[in-house]
Amino acid sequence: MANTSDIRNGLCIKHNEKLFQIIEFQHVKPGKGPAFVRTKMRHIESGRVLDHTFSAGHKIETVRIENREYQYLYMDGDSYVFMNNKTYDQINIQESMVDKKEFLQEAMIVNILFHADEEIPLVIELPMHIVSEVTYTEPGVKGDTATNSMKPATIATGAEVRVPLFIDNGETIKIDTRTGVYVERVKK
Predict the structure, then answer these.
(1) 153: number of Cβ within 10 Å
(2) CA distances in angstroms from 122 to 108, 118, 119, 152, listed in the order given
(3) For residues 164 and 184, what is the distance between their CA atoms, to the nearest angstrom?
(4) Does the fold of domain 65-125 match that of domain 2-62?
């Protein structure tokens, strides 16, 4: 068991039977009253951020987590199959655990956060950007390029993103997986 003096950025703790990762913390010693630690914590599974204040000396339960690289292989029923490139072990992860699954591409390298003591996968993190081909989009109208207009486009993974009017079918684009926003056109 640790206490509030052990809190640091990136520390993973169990709070109210849920796993949280410390994003920010601040030790506060007011002129009057007891000291306390103000924290911002991210819920591991949902990604929701919570502000919480611990009194000084409060006992906290730390949890050891590991970040491992896996390669996405294929979908098997309602689960995704990933392979560890070092040990070649394969794991099945339920579809509900994969966030932003519309951007998942075969052979993509992802980071999987594991509860190290129990060997349970917690979160699958896709790369920040992916490069994909536009499979379908309406043709742009000549003369509409003066404005910052966007149009819908379908990419090779099946996801729909908004792209500038000058993007055509067959072009390769870069997409931010966190927001699903077009970043730039990629030259072949």
Answers:
(1) 23
(2) 19, 11, 9, 33
(3) 9
(4) no
Looking at domain 2-62, its CATH architecture is: Roll (2.30)
Residue 82's closest CA among 46, 111, 57, 40? 111
The 3-state DSSP class for residue 102 equals helix
User: Can you read off the two tokens belonging to residue 21?
Assistant: 């990762």
Per residue in 1-44, pLDDT (tens digit) is: 888 888 998 889 999 999 998 989 999 999 888 999 999 998 88
Q: Is 152 helix (H, G, I), strand (E, B) or coil?
A: strand
pLDDT of residue 187: 85
Q: Is 129-186 in CATH node 3.90.800.10? A: no
**Number of residues assigned to the chain:** 188
Question: How is residue 80 annotated by DSSP?
Answer: E
Domain 65-125: assigned CATH number: 2.40.50.140
Question: Residues near 4 by Cβ (< 8 Å), separated by ≥ 6?
Answer: 27, 37, 54, 55, 56, 57, 58, 60
**Is this model's pTM higher than 0.85 or not?**
no
Q: What angle do CA 132, 188, 169 make, to 5 degrees?
A: 50
Per-position DSSP letters for 4-64, written without gaps between them: GGG--TT-EEEETTEEEEEEEEEEE--SSS--EEEEEEEETTT--EEEEEEETT-EEEE--
Contact between 134 and 140 (Cβ < 8 Å): no
Maximum CA pair distance of the chain? 69
